[in-house]
């Protein structure tokens, strides 16, 4: 098998010195933090889900058992392990187990299917895959069998629950004395997935130092203390519920984490009432759904102090509705798995909370707003958001082409977002330069879906664009030129699904056209083409 591409993430030495001197990077590591909390908060409840309630001491024990068991099976520290688990305590124990063993979690979403998981396994050169037996009607063991047949490097498949022929996470055993010492705080702790506007997901290497800083500082901004109860309602693998402040922030503080099996009011409201949840993060469509359901619910939501909304734009009208119906503080969160996270502060005036997407976590988050040529726009103007700082990556893993596109020569990350910067550093998201669809917070690459459509024998050309959607914020629309008689929209959607993709990537709408009919002289870019199609269609309807 080919040599492992080393995991790396590095900042220039002068910045490393500065981030340390400023106290952002303190040399803490994820296993180190967990060990310390297991002693300090031993009997406090760390994680709740279903019928399971784990204390901090028990979480540490469980993580040790799982980590040592994985090493006993032949995984070695530094190996990458793709984790595809839903919102159960096992998500937390497995990930903490990997940290304890020096193994590198790579986070797949439960919605991902073979095409995506295969890509992630491949790109990460993972030797391990850990999934649930079944969830939401899907059997991950079937997926695991297909993956193993395709990827000889995938030697260790482990299942939470009924493992069939695979290894069972529940019966992992090993010698905790053989667990490695804590890692270098500057080393890569895990690989997060990018939303990805071009093609397939890129892998985001985050270090212990940088990630711990991001959620420790988030705790302060979000008011997370040992008394907090943080609910994971969005898929736990997303960067938002993991780190802004997320379950890791909550564990850092000695707070309680409640795993909600689903993001809707039906699953979450009874748990909020039972566990006295104080903070939860949602995407805008869910926040509106919650606001509506809160008016009629019998469950006591009075413990909620902070409702965070992010992942996609919350328009001011929706923000007001959420504040009025939930009667707790609203916090807007504009973040990205690559790093930079902005928050409105808990005591910001109402117009700021309603009308902006917040300001950066760190005084050392450098934000540039530039025009198409890279020149700073006039104060208050709209432009491309570039950023670098103490928790924003400098490079993707194993992807020189993406790195050349996504980072400037002086290390700024090109976020792809169009923003306006207000006094005080508050940002308003005004749109996007990249061609992805932000469907209720799930990012879909237009290019990726076009490639799948083009693989269909009756498709001559396809352009996938985002359309405004009253509920989702944006939905995906595929414009298709057929070879001869067009297939039905339903059959094309089924085709995309059949390519082994997450359901959220199936086009919401398919529009057949004779031609893309651009009058522009010469060749136009796919970007321009998509924009033209979107505008023409919106004018007609
Ligand atoms: C508009 N667009 C937003 C917002 C993200 C916290 C919160 C969210 C994410 C996240 C995250 C937005 N208004 N409030 O990682 O830690 C869009 C932008 C951004 C992209 C990043 C976190 N909040 N977005 O959503 O990596 O386009 O992270 O660049 O999934 O989501 O997506 P992702």
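-> sequence recovered:
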């Amino acid at each position: 098998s080919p040599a492992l591409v080393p995991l790396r993430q590095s900042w220039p030495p002068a910045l490393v010195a500065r981030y340390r001197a400023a106290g952002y990077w303190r040399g803490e590591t994820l296993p180190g933090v967990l060990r310390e909390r297991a002693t300090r908060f031993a009997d406090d409840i760390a994680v709740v889900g279903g019928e399971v309630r784990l204390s901090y001491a028990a979480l540490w024990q469980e993580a040790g058992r799982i980590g040592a068991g994985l090493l006993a099976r032949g995984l070695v520290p530094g190996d990458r392990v793709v984790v595809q688990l839903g919102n159960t305590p096992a998500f937390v124990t497995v990930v903490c187990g990997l940290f304890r063993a020096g193994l590198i979690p790579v986070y797949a979403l439960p919605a991902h299917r073979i095409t995506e998981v295969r890509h992630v396994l491949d790109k990460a050169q993972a030797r391990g895959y850990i999934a649930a037996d079944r969830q939401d009607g899907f059997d991950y063991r079937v997926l695991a069998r297909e993956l193993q047949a395709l990827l000889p490097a995938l030697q260790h498949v482990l299942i939470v629950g009924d493992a069939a022929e695979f290894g069972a996470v529940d019966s992992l055993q090993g010698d905790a004395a053989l667990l490695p010492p804590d890692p270098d705080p500057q080393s890569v702790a895990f690989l997060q997935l990018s939303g990805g506007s071009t093609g397939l997901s890129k892998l985001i290497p985050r270090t212990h130092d940088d990630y711990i800083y991001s959620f420790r500082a988030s705790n302060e901004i979000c008011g997370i203390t040992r008394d907090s109860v943080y609910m994971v309602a969005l898929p736990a693998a997303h960067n938002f519920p993991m780190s802004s402040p997320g379950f890791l922030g909550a564990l850092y503080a000695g707070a309680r984490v409640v795993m909600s099996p689903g993001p809707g009011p039906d699953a979450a409201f009874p748990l909020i009432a039972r566990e006295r949840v104080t903070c939860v993060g949602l995407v805008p469509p869910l926040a509106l759904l919650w606001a509506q359901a809160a008016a009629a619910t019998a469950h006591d939501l009075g413990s909620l102090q902070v409702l965070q909304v992010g992942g996609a734009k919350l328009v001011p009208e929706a923000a007001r509705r959420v504040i009025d119906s939930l009667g707790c503080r609203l916090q807007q969160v504009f973040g990205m798995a690559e790093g930079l996270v902005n928050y409105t502060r808990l005591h910001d005036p109402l117009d700021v909370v309603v009308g902006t997407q917040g300001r950066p976590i760190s005084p050392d988050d450098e934000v540039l707003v530039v025009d198409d040529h890279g020149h700073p726009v006039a104060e208050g103007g709209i432009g491309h958001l570039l950023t670098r700082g103490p928790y924003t990556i400098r490079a993707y893993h194993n992807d020189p082409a993406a790195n050349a596109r996504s980072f400037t020569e002086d290390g700024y990350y090109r976020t792809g977002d169009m923003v306006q910067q207000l006094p005080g550093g508050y940002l308003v998201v005004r749109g996007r330069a990249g061609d992805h669809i932000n469907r209720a917070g799930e990012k879909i690459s237009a290019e990726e879906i076009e490639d799948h459509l083009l693989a269909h024998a009756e498709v001559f050309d396809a352009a996938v664009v985002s359309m405004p959607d009253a509920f989702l914020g944006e939905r995906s629309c595929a414009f298709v030129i057929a070879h001869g008689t067009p297939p039905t929209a339903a059959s094309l959607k089924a085709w995309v699904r059949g390519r082994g993709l997450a359901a959220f990537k199936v086009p919401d709408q398919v529009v057949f056209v004779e031609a893309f009919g651009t009058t522009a002289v010469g060749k136009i870019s796919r970007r321009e083409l998509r924009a033209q199609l979107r505008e023409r269609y919106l004018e007609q309807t």
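Residues 195, 239-240, 243-244, 310-313, 332-337, 341, 357, 415-417, 429, 432, 438, 441, 443 surround J2J (CB under 6 Å).
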